[in-house]
Amino acid sequence: xxxxxxxxxILYLIAAAIWGIPGxxxxxKGITAYTTIPANELWWLCLITFGVLISFIWxxxxxxxxxxxxIAALPDKTTIGHTFPLRGWVLIVCMSSLGIALKFVSCIPxxxxxxxxxxxxxxxxxxxxxxxxxxxxRCE
Length: 140
Description:
- The chain contains 4 helices and 2 strands; from the N terminus they run E-H-H-E-H-H.
- The chain is mostly helical.
- The protein has one domain.
- It has a two-stranded antiparallel sheet with strand order 1-2.
- The protein starts with 5 loop residues before the first strand and ends with a helix.
């Protein structure tokens, strides 16, 4: 069986793309939703966004550190499937599917989309940046 082996260092960049690219997309959707909200509601939605952002950054930082430690323990040449453990891949697929499904639910208020997506998206981008940082600091 032929396997395409890559340097384990590249797995950090793959993880950064898997987390960061959706982060930019989600952020754009959140900001777009904010533009449709009356100005008098923005102050409390910004507070909710800030809370969502801080919560997800805290959670994602722990997950990034865990995945980086798993990558660091791999042999020098490995497959792309080792970027995350199976549980991580399942989580990514489920969360992506849920996010896509939410787009088609018409009863979700724009305030939820604005505050939640504007907090979640930048947190995913920060997680992607943390993977890039690990890639750069583990250069040999």
